[in-house]
Design brief:
The protein is built from nine helices and 13 strands. It is α/β, with parallel strands linked by helices and about 325 residues long. It has a nine-stranded mixed β-sheet, with helices on both faces. Strands 3-2-6-7 form a four-stranded mixed β-sheet. Helix 1 packs across helix 7 and helix 3 runs parallel beside helix 4. The chain is globular and about 55 Å long. The two termini are about 15 Å apart. The relative contact order is 0.14.
Length: about 325
């Protein structure tokens, strides 16, 4: 089955500040803030919502087609995608801008200051979309270019391709009416509990009304697991056990990959949600959104340990 993952491809440039931000910011002068932090180095990692989801899907033996725009500095990321055997035909390249980049500075108390340059993400990539008529497919619309998010939902509806909607951090950038339109007719809506409240505020709908617009609703709750709302039922999904928690960044994207793997494997949504929790548990064990690794046997063993049952595909 074909899997389409639209969203962003980005470089995460991570810096550490060997002090505390609070010691250099004067509350009474916050309206005149002018500070410079000398960091102790910079580490570049691969990220972006589409890249993160495709990475974890690859660990689960699925080669997703990424739909995103990239810039003139894409070479290193391209090499990584090729090394993982991921297709590049859905990626739009631009030579006049940089690939999206997040510049994240973390102090000794894990407070963060982040600057994000959308770069190529400012440009829609959907015009190059082509789906083979003879292939079944599942898509996810993850946070990315807002024009793409709406356009892909319309394309998928026209071509009868079921899709997951994951508005994430683009909730505040999407017009309210577009959020409601994309939710309507989706196979599944996924968000964390705070984002769901933002969606309710943006659309003016209650949670029950939102559920009526989509096939199912998954609400993630961090280390407390997630909740599946489906067919009039509410099912808690416990978080899978991680050996250690190093960095929760990117766990949500990993969860979405496991969920997709379960759905295309014909699993019940409750099993698919548990599969999401399992791959997310590997993600939190590493610093960075694409640094975790596991074999299929590792995944299946952790699923068994966490839920007391087997999972195969």
């Amino acid at each position: 089955m074909k899997i389409y993952v639209s969203g962003s491809l980005a470089y995460d440039r991570i810096m550490g500040f060997p002090g505390k931000f609070e010691e250099h910011i004067l509350p009474e002068k916050i309206h005149l803030i002018n500070v410079s932090f000398v960091v102790n180095g910079i580490t570049e990692k691969f990220g972006g919502t589409a890249g993160n989801i495709a990475y974890s899907l690859n660990l689960l033996e699925e080669k997703a087609t990424i739909l995103a725009a990239v810039g003139k500095d894409f070479e290193a990321y391209e090499t990584r995608l090729r090394e993982n055997g991921l297709p590049l035909d859905g990626i739009l390249r631009r030579d006049d801008v940089l690939t999206s980049g997040a510049y994240i500075t973390t102090d000794l108390t894990n407070n963060q200051i982040t600057g994000f340059n959308p770069g190529a993400m400012n440009y829609p990539a959907h015009n190059g979309f082509r789906h083979p008529d003879d292939e079944t497919a599942l898509a996810i619309i993850a946070p990315g270019n807002t024009e793409d998010m709406l356009a892909y939902s319309r394309i998928y509806k026209e071509q009868s391709i079921p899709y997951i909607f994951d508005p994430g951090q683009q909730i505040i950038a999407l017009p309210n009416e577009h959020i409601a339109e994309i939710i309507t007719g989706s196979q599944l809506l996924i968000s964390n509990d705070y984002e769901l409240q933002m969606i309710q505020k943006a659309t003016g709908h209650t949670k029950d009304e939102i559920q009526a617009l989509t096939g199912a609703l998954v609400v993630t709750l961090g280390d407390e697991g997630s909740v599946l709302h489906y067919n009039g039922t509410e099912m808690p999904i416990p978080a899978a056990r991680a050996d250690r928690v190093v960095d929760p960044t990117g766990a949500g994207d990993a969860y979405r990959a496991g969920l997709i793997k379960g759905m295309i494997s014909g699993k019940d949504l409750s099993v698919a949600a548990r599969m999401g929790s399992v791959i997310a548990s590997f993600s939190v064990e590493c610093s960075g959104t694409q640094e975790h690794d596991c074999t299929v046997a590792d995944f299946q063993a952790r699923y068994r340990e966490s839920y007391g049952e087997e999972v195969y595909w």
